[in-house]
Amino acid sequence: MTLLSVGGVRFRVNALFLLLLFGLAWAERLAEGLTVFAVVLLHELGHVAAAKGYGVGVEEVELLPFGGVARLSGPVELDPAAEAGIAVAGPFTNLALMAAGALLWRYDVFSPWWTRFFLEVNALIAGVNLLPALPLDGGRLLRAHRSRKVGWRRATAEAVRLGRALAVVFTAAGAVLLYLGVAAVTLPVLGVFVFIAAGKEEQAAAYLFMAYLSRKRERLLRPGCMSAEMLAAAGAAPIKHVVERMVPDKYHLVWVVDEDGRPAGIASERDILDALFEHGPELPLEGAIGWRFIDRK
Fold it and tell me: Which tens digit of pLDDT belongs to each residue from 245-277?
């Protein structure tokens, strides 16, 4: 449900969030429900402010029970620095709110029960979102860090696997604790949400990966310089295996070796990306060689 639109950004409330509010109101705990709503909204506004700082547009913000989703106008996932900065802004906002809550507690501005609940909600949302698994903020931080070492696609796959594993743990543990009467239904619901959202991240990865490659090819045409990364690969290997190892903010030169392990030539990143878009990902790397060595036997 869309609440309002401010500065071109639509603010929506997920049905699960509305269900949570209704449940709290039914239990005569509307004050807690409105507190959760305010904390989640401020968490998302932290993401929005960070995105604006990086020059990234925000199309929509959807509020969820344990955070939210800020849908951006560009694939910020392809820029590790921007993705990390925007991701950490949400939990950082919760930590700042906890500091403010501690002051409220110290000077007894509001009732102790509300201040304690305010601190607990911020701690829960910050803690859950910092777990290193997609689609949580911690998963985006992990991908931004790992993409510089293993490439964007592999980093995404790692974070998605962690997201699914975390979802299974949440769902199973929540079901057991719910059966024992120790926990509420929110924990297994969170597990289901994380599992579904991790699947959506995996589905979007193929599109984002192609956008990532197109963006890299455009950057190669701009004047300036980039740090270089050297790789070695067999000429018979599909070029997709090399592309998956490409890391952001690096220009790659690949030494192509023959069956005997001798250098057959060098394929630049531009050669590989051009071959990928022209011939497809299964083309042997040998077909992308830009500089071929002469056999001097």
Answer: 888 777 889 999 988 888 889 998 888 888 888
CATH of span 226-292: 3.10.580.10
Q: How far apart are CA 220 and CA 150, in angstroms?
A: 20
- Residues 195-206 have pLDDT tens digits of 888 888 888 877
CA angle, corner 233, sides to 230 and 235, nearest 5?
130
- The residue from 28, 32, 44, 286 that is catalytic is 44
User: For the chain, what are the domain ranges?
Assistant: 2-218, 226-292
CB 183: neighbour CB atoms within 10 A? 15
Phi, psi of 136 (to 5 degrees): -75, 165
The phi and psi torsions of 127 (rounded to 5 degrees) equal: -65, -45
Q: How many helices (H) and strands (E) does the chain have?
A: 9, 8
Q: Has 244 been annotated as catalytic?
A: no
pTM exceeds 0.70, yes or no: yes
Measured between alpha carbons, how far is 100 from 78 in angstroms, rounded to an integer? 34
Paired strand residues for 13: 63
pLDDT higher than threshold 90 for residue 188: no
Contact present, 268 and 253 (Cβ < 8 Å):
yes
Instruction: List, for residues 49-81, the tens digit of each pLDDT value.
Output: 999 898 888 888 887 766 678 888 766 767 888
